[in-house]
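Re-run with default settings, no changes from the original entry. Doing this only to confirm the output is reproducible before filing.
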Amino acid sequence: MKKFALRADQIRPLVAGRGGCFATDRITVEGRKVRYLKNG
């Protein structure tokens, strides 16, 4: 079982109405910062 960097109650939307994203284990489990986002 994976131990995530944040609990579910700690996850919050950053920008409303902009859809969703996929995040790798490096972000969700290891807690690394997002370095690059592509819009569109």
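The mean pLDDT is 86. The chain has one domain: 1-40.
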